[in-house]
Structure formats: C-alpha cells, structure tokens
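Action item from last meeting closed. Structure (307 res):
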C-alpha cells in the first residue's frame, strides 16, 4: 500500500497508546478513520484531536470482546463509508499473575480481548477488505507472542495465538488483495500496565524474575507505581504508531516495534531454551539508546515516592 490518502481505516482500542496515535497519524495522512474503544472518555479525547484534521471520522464505544458489538461496528462502518481499507486489531489488555492464583474470570477477560476479538473482527471485516484492489489487516501480537516470561501466562497465550492465527492467514491471503501484518511491539510507554488486572493478593505483584517487584528501598511496588514507571520507560507510542504504518506501507509482514523487540526475537532464535538469561546482556549492549528513557523512569519513580 503506497499511500493512506483517501483510505478508510478502522482502529480498535483508539482511546490510548498505539491505537490513539495510529488514528492520529492515519488522519494526518488523509485517511478517514473509524475509531472504537471501551473507554468512552479517552475515546472522546482521541475524537477531539481527530477534528483538527480535515478528514471524515467517527467513533464507537464498543467492547471488542463482544462478538455482536464487533459485528455492529463493521455494519456501521460500511453504512457510513461504503467500504473499509485498513483494519487495525490493536485493543489489548494484560493480567499478570501466577497461573495457579489467577481467576478464570481474569483469564477469560484478557483472552477474549486479546485473542477472540481479533478473530471476530477479522471474520467481520475480511469479506469487505477482499472487495478492494488493495487493503490491509493489521493484528497486534507482542514480542511476548515470541518469547515467554513467568507470571504472564494469559498474555503470552493470547499473543502467541494472535501470531499463529495472523501468520497462517497471511499465507492464506497471499494471492488476494489483502495484505496481512502481524505487529510485535517491544516496550512501548502506554497505559497497558496501568489498565492491567493484577493479582495483588499474596506477596505483592510478581516481576518477570518471579519475585515480588520492589523499589530500591525494598518496598513492594503498587500497581499504579508499576504502571507509571512502565509508561515512562517505554518508547513514545506516537513513534511506535509511525513504525507500524511504515511497515504497512512497505508491506512488511512481521512488524517489530523497537530495538528491544528485534533483539529479543534474535535471542530467542539463538538460544531457544536460555534466551531469558542472555536478554539482559543483549539489552545492556543497547544501553546508550535507553539511557534517556531510564532517566525518565527514575524521575517518575522518585516523584512517586515523594508523593
Ligand atoms: N505497550 C506495550 O509495551 C505493548 C507491547 C506489546 C504489545 N502491545 C499490544 O499493543 C496493543 C495496544 O496496547 P497499548 O500498549 O497501546 O495499551 P493501552 O492500554 O494504552 O491501549 C489499549 C486500548 O485498548 C482499549 N481496550 C481495552 N479493552 C477493550 C475492549 N474490551 N474493547 C475495546 N477497547 C478496549 C483500552 O481502553 C485502551 O484504550 C495491545 O494489543 C497490546 O497488547 C503493547
């Protein structure tokens, strides 16, 4: 796809993070944008920003985990624009917890949003995408759809599933006008951790080393502290959205967002059993790129402990 001008794009989870900036950057590039989110307040914020661009836009408060609401979205988009050219299945959540302590309710919540919604949306929109001369379906997995860490089973399971589904569909759609992409972001500074469902019972929130996450003074970190430092320490979501859109333009099937994602994928290939041991070393080599972000995260942490 050479240009986004005069295209119709649907973006799920557009109230925050990468979805918000996908919508803004597509509008800047001349696309009509149909945005949706379960959070009506943040969706409204994105909607207000989109008004600054001279393109048609519309927004829908929907819960993507509900198949009927996805079908409603597809109907409304076709009714308003007559067609759809790009669908970004971006909405996602996290529910970090040890597997044995995790409720089935939280498991289903995360899996239904991260995985089932991608299937239902692909099913609803593909017949329309197939009618065009060129169109794109962009599903967001994660670098955690390639490597695994402890205490994050449902996130990994759902993101591995998105990857498997999308990469198979990619091959199936090879001779059609639909280009299918799978997105693998690394650490992007968004609200995903602030919006996560943590299991805060027991010894505190567990880090990827399997131990309770603590600050330098040894105090247990709260969910909001973890969310804040995650947001401050990651790549700017606007930059991430630009990388995704560039990947779509270049028809890159696997879109890695961030050097950390690329290095973790390489580590997984070099050492399929032991990548968790070499990842900290590889990430250390990239330190110069991360110093600014680390300083930002430290500042946020200090501000929090001062509160
Ligand atoms: N931030 C990262 O480091 C990172 C890394 C890898 C993958 N991802 C993936 O990127 C995608 C975007 O996440 P983000 O980091 O921008 O997070 P974010 O929390 O900033 O944005 C996600 C948006 O999805 C919306 N959403 C949640 N549940 C929904 C539902 N049921 N129906 C409709 N909308 C819903 C949220 O309200 C939010 O606006 C997700 O699929 C996430 O798993 C993020």
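Sequence:
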């Amino acid at each position: 796809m050479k240009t986004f001008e005069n295209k119709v794009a649907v973006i799920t989870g557009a109230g925050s993070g990468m979805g918000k900036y996908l919508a803004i950057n597509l509008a800047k590039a001349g696309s009509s944008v149909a945005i949706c989110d379960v959070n009506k307040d943040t969706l409204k914020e994105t909607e207000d920003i989109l008004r600054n661009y001279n393109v048609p836009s519309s927004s829908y408060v929907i819960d993507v985990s509900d198949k009927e609401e996805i079908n409603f979205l597809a109907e409304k988009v076709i009714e308003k624009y007559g067609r759809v050219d790009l669908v970004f299945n971006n909405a996602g959540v996290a529910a970090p917890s040890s597997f044995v302590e995790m409720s089935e309710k939280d498991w289903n919540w995360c899996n239904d949003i991260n995985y089932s919604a991608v299937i239902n949306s692909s099913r609803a929109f593909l017949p329309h995408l197939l009618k065009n001369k060129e169109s794109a379906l962009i599903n967001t997995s994660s670098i955690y759809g390639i490597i695994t860490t402890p205490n994050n089973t449902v996130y990994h399971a759902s993101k591995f599933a998105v990857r498997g589904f999308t990469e198979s569909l990619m091959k199936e759609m090879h001779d059609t006008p639909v280009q299918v992409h799978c997105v693998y972001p690394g650490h992007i500074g968004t609200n995903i951790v602030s919006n996560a469902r943590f299991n805060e019972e027991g010894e505190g929130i567990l880090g990827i080393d399997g131990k309770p996450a603590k600050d330098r003074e040894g105090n247990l970190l709260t969910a909001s502290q973890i969310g804040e430092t995650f947001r401050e320490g990651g790549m700017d979501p606007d930059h991430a959205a630009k990388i995704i859109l560039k990947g779509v333009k270049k028809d890159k099937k696997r879109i890695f967002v961030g050097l950390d994602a690329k290095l973790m994928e390489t580590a997984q290939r070099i050492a399929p059993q032991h990548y968790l041991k070499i990842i900290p070393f590889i990430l250390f080599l990239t330190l110069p790129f991360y110093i600014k972000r680390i300083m930002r995260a430290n500042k946020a942490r200090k501000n929090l402990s001062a509160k």
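Note appended to the action item: The mean pLDDT is 92.
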